[in-house]
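Morning. Coffee machine broken again, so started the prediction first thing and wrote up yesterday's gels while waiting. Chain of 467 residues, entered below exactly as on the submission form.
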Amino acid sequence: MRCELLFPLFLLACVINGLPVVGAPPVLSMHFKLLRRHHRQRSPLQRVREIVRNDHARAKMISDRIGWQRSACVAGGSVPRTSSFAMPISSAAFTGTGQYFVRLKVGTPAQTFLLVADTGSDLTWMKCRYRACRGCGDAQWRRAFRADQSSSFSPIPCSSQLCKNSLPFSLAKCLAPTSPCEYDYGYTDGSTARGIFADEVATVALSGGQSAKLKGIVVGCTSSSAGSSFRSLDGVLGLGYSNTSFAARAASRFGGKFSYCLVDHLSPRNASDYLVFGKDTIHRPSKPDRRRYAELILNSWLEPFYAVRVGGVSVGAELLNISEAVWDSGAGGGVILDSGTSLAMLAEPAYRAVLAALSAPLARYPKVEAKPFEFCFKWDQSFDEAAVPRLVVHLVGPRGAAAPLRPPVKSYLIDVADGVKCIGILSASWPGVSTIGNILQQNHLWEFDIANRRVSFEPSSCSRSLH
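Came back before lunch.
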């Protein structure tokens, strides 16, 4: 079954519709605001259960895709494959998905869409209406890309090498050489997205305050979608690692890197931050001793996911006894950073060790059942968060340097109801990949330096205004 789910240098050259076109070595950066939106009127436990269902579905997709690609590589088969700008980014807690949104302007003239910022997706797509698509888009869609109204919309032919060899989940059928390249995404929760690939233009905000046209963006024009994954969004911004993702195309023009800072899921409605491509001129420079660097593992069987090396996990001052194979992507394990997964998901051997170590000092509190979590307890005003042992994920940096990730306690001890807290970590299958989701990433500034194959991170409040 096809599965995908809802996280490289040019000058400003000419002008289209009064806007410069990004096209050669960089001089500026570009940015997108990361948008946070409130959840509907549901109880915290209902919202968390919806997040868990989505995370489990996504975990299966990740495991299936990496397993298939690893098998193909081992067998020798083929596998699909100092300027800046920024976008505002914020939590989509209101949808129950636990993801983050950005606004992207697509087409000529530009049309604006709210997309999930997903480092685990290699396709940027929007709900779309186009005369050549099968059907013309769901009439109930509140917003859809009007491809016929964009002079820069150019369908990618199904006979092209790009369609045949590089685009994710493209269909083999080709009725005529000039017919559009079609895709059909199937999701483990039963959701689907079908449409055609096209070459388009995105309008972005540069660090100097100007707007510019970013050409050569591969987008999906989704004419048919079904399932709960797509009810509250216009599409997906593909930030995954592949030759055709938005991240790869944008980073290649802006210094080979992008960064983001994820606000707390439950922060006030107006809290937001930015997704930045190129040199980050928005966030304050850090103290040198606060920033850590971890090695990015970028290879064909892990695409489009960003994997990191992990040396172990400690709780309190104790390094837990977990097999090294759990952290080794070459031995059936490995760890990825994924903005599209909410909760941390650890392969079963690591999950058991972490759960036991975290729950032991909390055993004095009355236990309660709050499925799907294994350890939940009642707490009152006497509860002291300082007594909760600190969880540390020991990432490994270039040349073996230590790069400990110390998430705040609220990122792994979560509130699911009034007076009830749970250890908010899920079990993943073994053999299989462990995932550092966006809740464990929140309140940190992350920079994905694709060009140098490393990721840096440091604590941050992740809430600011553009300047």
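The helical segments are 44-74, 161-166, 246-253, 348-359, 438-441. Going to sketch it on the whiteboard this afternoon.
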